[in-house]
Protein: Probable electron transfer flavoprotein subunit beta
Organism: Cladonia borealis
Amino acid sequence: MSTALKILVPVKRVIDYAVKPRVNSARTAIETQGVKHSMNPFDELSIEAAVRMRERGSPKVEDILALSAGPAKCVDVLRTAMAMGADRSIHVELPDSSAAGELEPLGVAKLLAKVVEKEDRNLVILGKQSIDDDSNQTGQMLAGLLGWGQATQASKIEFEEGGDKVSVTREVDGGVETLRSPLPMVITTDLRLNEPRYASLPNIMKAKKKKLEKKSLEDFGLEAGNRLKTVKVEEPPARKGGGKVEDVDGMISKLKELGAI
């Protein structure tokens, strides 16, 4: 008898991928005021993966829970997640300030571990990284805290007959490798996994009726507080224009002049 899946999909509100980030005037962080935000693209892949598991029908998906931790506007990405197919969502509201408005990867992993325990999850699917801090740490830390098997940067997810074991294909240098693990499991998603669907207008309207719980860190026995402090943020130096050479000998001379060879 196959195990019914209870899936947790964390989603993060980030500056939209099409927006060029700017350093704020104080040079302490990236400017977020008045900037378009959307769901982290890797998290869109995770929601799509969970919904496709339900559509395949085997193993049975009992529940897809989306979760986001952050300021009040995170509700927008949770509504999007539910419009894409998540059944319900939890918003862990954090103070809207630069000091405590965003958890570090370890803080997120500790929160997710508490949610997994409280909500009786047996599969967590999350983006391999968020496009704002690019840490690529939360999934690995979560698996370590839970003592679960993990497969990172998934480009294909398949359930074996019976539904208790998962095979995950991931790209590595020089090819691909396939990992196999029994449930429960943590999977992080990569861009080749799927193409996320657009949330249709009817589903957006239905999402407004789905359950969205408001929680705080205190509800999970956790406190806000980061170990790292950003001292300064600067734009990278502008690249200098290139030069032209007449022939191969000229290129070799130029490279020697620059100390490249």
Q: What stands out?
A: The helical segments are 41-56, 75-84, 105-119, 138-146, 201-207, 248-258. The mean pLDDT is 89.
